[in-house]
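R.M. (postdoc): so does anyone remember the format we settled on? I'll just put the structure tokens first.
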């Protein structure tokens, strides 16, 4: 029986957030022939290095995110919020709702609810509500409703407060593609924090816990952790 193609959409606050934290899952699904979409609320331009203006770095990051997505056979979208200024509003929630209805992802991934970065916290809230709005048939928009599985919350060193790894995904198959694609992003190899080394090592340690070479871990909403047993 032929396997149905899936569509994975990862929504982050900044370019680099999803590529680093769940990029190996995206790469694995790309290898499997699935469709990939990354969406960033901001371009992360205020982390610009010496020699760049924020506007120049925004352009560079958008091009890098597009290159990452292209290497996975996917698509990169970037919203217009300035870095550090993601604002929660019904307008942006419905805009994202419309994107979800248009793109029809099977799975949504985003940030965990707690973070040291305000943009991550706000993005989490926006995605959770947009996911709900997109799925609700009685919310009439230009496009019909669409339900995506999730959201799953990716493991991020900035979002560790209360994060409880619940879902582990074997990403051994996607690692080599991710390792090539992630180097498109300036952040991965040039920032003061060793992003590439951290997420590379994290995938090894998570893999050890499930007996695989590489893995990425995700949390889910607490109500999704209920287990119903009729007997032992």
């Amino acid at each position: 029986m032929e396997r149905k193609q899936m569509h994975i959409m990862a929504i982050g606050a900044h370019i680099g957030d999803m590529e680093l934290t769940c990029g190996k899952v995206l790469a694995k699904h790309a290898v499997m022939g699935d469709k990939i979409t990354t969406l960033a609320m901001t371009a992360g331009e205020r982390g610009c290095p010496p020699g760049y203006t924020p506007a120049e770095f925004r352009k560079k990051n958008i091009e890098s995110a597009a290159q990452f997505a292209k290497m996975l056979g996917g698509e990169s979208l970037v919203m217009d919020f300035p870095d550090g200024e993601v604002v929660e509003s019904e307008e942006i929630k419905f805009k994202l709702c419309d994107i979800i209805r248009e793109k029809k992802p099977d799975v949504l991934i985003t940030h965990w609810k707690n973070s040291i970065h305000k943009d991550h916290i706000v993005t989490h809230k926006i995605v959770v509500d947009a996911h709900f709005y997109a799925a609700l048939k009685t919310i009439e928009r230009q496009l019909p409703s669409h339900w995506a599985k999730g959201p799953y919350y990716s493991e991020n060193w900035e979002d560790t407060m209360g994060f409880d790894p619940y879902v582990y995904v074997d990403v051994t198959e996607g690692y080599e593609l991710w390792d090539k694609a992630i180097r498109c992003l300036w952040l991965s190899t040039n920032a003061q924090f060793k992003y590439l080394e951290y997420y590379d090592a994290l995938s090894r340690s998570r893999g050890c816990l499930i007996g695989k070479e590489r893995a990425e871990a995700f949390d889910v909403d607490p109500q999704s952790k209920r287990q119903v047993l009729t007997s032992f």
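R.M.: ...and that's the designed sequence above, right after the tokens. Also worth knowing: The longest helix spans residues 54-71. DSSP finds eight helices and seven strands in the chain.
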